[in-house]
Amino acid sequence: MKQYIVDAFTDVVFHGNQAAVCILDEWLPEKMMIDIAAENNLSETAFAVKVADGYDLRWFTPGGEINLCGHATLATAYVLFKYYEKDAGRIVFHTLSGDLFTGRRGDCIEMDFPVYGLNKVPVTNEMAAAMGAAPKEAYLDRDLLLVYEDEDVIKNLKPDIDKVKLLDGLGVGVTAPGKDYDCVSRFFVPKLNINEDPVTGSVHCMITPYWIKRLGKSSLQAYQASKRGGKLICELRDNRVIISGRAAIFAVSELMI
User: Fold this and answer.
1) Which of 70, 181, 217, 218 has its CA 20 to 30 A from that of 27?
2) pTM of the predicted model, to two decimals?
3) C-alpha dist (Å) from residue 9 to 94, 121, 187, 190, 196
4) Which residues are known to be catalytic?
5) The pLDDT value given to residue 238
6) Domains and CATH numbers, the chain
């Protein structure tokens, strides 16, 4: 079985966020997909099966299946456009988060995602203790989003991962206004055995509506300030988040299973 390793939200290897992509003729047993994701030990491994009107798509972390992953969707679309659907301009994915639409946008791939809610919650001492700095605001949907006012705080955070696990939300995103970008962010998901995710599309389903409203802009140039780093172009369109980015193939391999 062929597997592709893709660096997403970058146009050069060794940057962005790695995802493994497996294009299947039919679904593997769920236990095998979990084992493959654990063996890869990347933040996500994506599995896709072609159907009449697109592809069914599932995402697995080393800790199990999740309901939405932006960078692995970008990676899968990139693989399909490059190797399987060379003449296609658009691909629809059927997922646990509903239908996701992807298309070519110049040298980028554009993805259409649902908007996450910005449900404001009180800032707590536990948040400050977990992150090492107190946020100004906090919002909760699938993930917890903590808002700071200084890009340097975001870059220098050294969270206590054991305490991050105790916070609400599947993952914890942190964001602040940027100097060279509209906003910067980082994302931590220790509940899924991912201490820090390098570049994350799904958390921008919260970050995008927040900064679009606060900055009064129609689109954002966003940067995820992890060690690998990654760039995202984000828009809010008809109550959907449109995220665009590039990708690069790192490796093509044969799984001996």
Assistant:
1) 70
2) 0.88
3) 22, 30, 15, 22, 16
4) 44
5) 87
6) 2-114+243-254 (3.10.310.10), 119-238 (3.10.310.10)
